[in-house]
Amino acid sequence: MYDFLSGLSVLEVSSFVASPTVGLYCGQFGAEVIRVDHKAGGLDYDRFMLADNGRSLAWENLNRAKKSVALDLRSGEGRELCVELASAVGQCVTNLPEKSFLNHAAMAKAREDMISVRIMGWHDGRQAMDFTVNAASGYPLMTGPADWDPETAPPVNQLMPAWDFLTGAYCAFTLLAALRHRDATGEGAEIRVPLGDVAIGTLANSGTIAEMLFRGGDRERLGNAIWGAFGSDMITRDGVRFMVAALTAKQWHGIVEAFGLEDEIAALEAELGVRFADGDTPRFKHRDRLLGLFQSVAGQHDYAELEKRMAAAGTTYERYRTPYEAAQDPQLVGDNPLFGRTPDNPSGVDYPVARSFANMPDKPRGEPQRAPYLGEHTEQVLADTLGLSSGAIGKLMDSGIAAPSDENHDYSKTRIMP
Predict the structure, then answer these.
(1) Strand partners, 157
(2) What pLDDT, on the 0 to 100 scale, is given for residue 205?
(3) Can you name the residues that pair with 367 across neighbouring β-strands?
């Protein structure tokens, strides 16, 4: 953790991926992030996969370095408390509907400079999630083997919810932009960020929309080849599959040297009347001929031998790993200063935990923090943020409007275990 955002508090009323990511990133930079959930847990509280004690590993990792407040959000009193907390904090991140009890007008009623960041589905109010947005984007129909029939080939979804994580990061940026604007002008802000707009807008920013309209049709499937450049997967004699990429002159020279194909490349250039060192266009246009040359060499060597040659030549490459292999890889995880450990996780599982992705060489990253137990900070936040007395908090607890920590609750008896 860094302390760049120390002194800043953010209220988060959210679930699933995109919205909790906002608070996660803010918390990693020192902000106090207060997550408010329904007292039985939000919609994502038991999201798969579950540890042996029934606690979600996904929830645990998206909610690190946060405080947890548990309220009865199905009751009018609990909802009023949530709105009061948002107004008292002054900035709120949520993915609740804009017409919910936590609408901007309700929060701003007691605070004119209120900042709210709301993650939506589509701009017109329709619901959406990462996989449905991805289906609309067109990307799954550009993914898959090059020899699939375009008329009958199925879509191939990506496993990582990229739009969710991109939206979360963008919302963290918009929150800080709104805070800077308020510091300068005293004005609050209501910000709505549709997940669908992040996806389709990214297509526009990447040039994909312009490309499709310019060409008057869809791009062909390329398998694992890199669009517009030279790069693809290859397989060695001992069956190891790896990826190489050559987007720059240095990368191109590195792969040619590693594979010892100087003469063959020169002959192909003479045949085709091109210079592959000139840029992406000739390498991409003739990618199949080039891949045939490189694959012929890869198929004659075991990976360990070829890897030494690629490393020595400065080739840009990486071996394909399963996620389980990646999790155990010393270079990626074990010896990577990005990771630390929090052995006191609510799940009871001990595993590597990511610190802030940003690395500041002159500042220590600090140790990552565990996720809270649901309701672990209910009493503290109600006292510190709303100034409620112990007696008032006790009444809220007795009436079920607020709930304490669920640390001692055994979810293994109530949830379907893996």
Answers:
(1) none
(2) 98
(3) none
**Separation CA 147–CA 153 (nearest Å):** 9
Written as one string, the DSSP assignment of 86-127 is HHHHSEEEE-S-TTSTT-HHHHHTS-TT-EEEEEESSTTS--
User: Mind giving me the DSSP string for 285-314?
Assistant: HTHHHHHHHHHHHHTTS-HHHHHHHHHHHT
pLDDT, average across residues 402-410: 96
Residue 417, pLDDT > 80, answer no
Give the C-alpha distances (Å, rounded to integers) separating 134 from 156, 199, 211, 374, 417.
10, 7, 18, 32, 29
Please count the CA atoms within 13 angstroms of the CA of 160 that sit on its side-chain side. 4
Q: How far apart are CA 90 and CA 98, in angstroms?
A: 17
How far is 203 from 35, CA to CA, in rounded Å?
Answer: 32
Q: Is 326 left (phi over 0), alpha (psi -120 to 50) or beta?
A: alpha
Provide CB contacts within 8 A for 174, sequence distance 6+.
117, 191, 193
Which residue shows structure tokens 């996989």? Answer: 131
pTM for this predicted structure: 0.94
Which token pair is 115? 């900042």
Task: Determine what percent of the chain falls in helix, strand and coil, rounding each to the nearest 5.
Answer: 40, 15, 45
What are 41-44's contacts with CB under 8 Å, separation 24+?
Answer: 41/374, 41/406, 42/14, 42/15, 43/15, 43/16, 44/15, 44/16, 44/20
Token pair of 21, please? Answer: 């990511």
Residue that has been written with the tokens 């009347």 in this structure: 273
Instruction: Give me the count of residues in the chain.
Output: 418
Catalytic positions = 164
Residue type for position 273: G
Backbone dihedral angles phi then psi of residue 161, each to the nearest 5 degrees: -75, 75
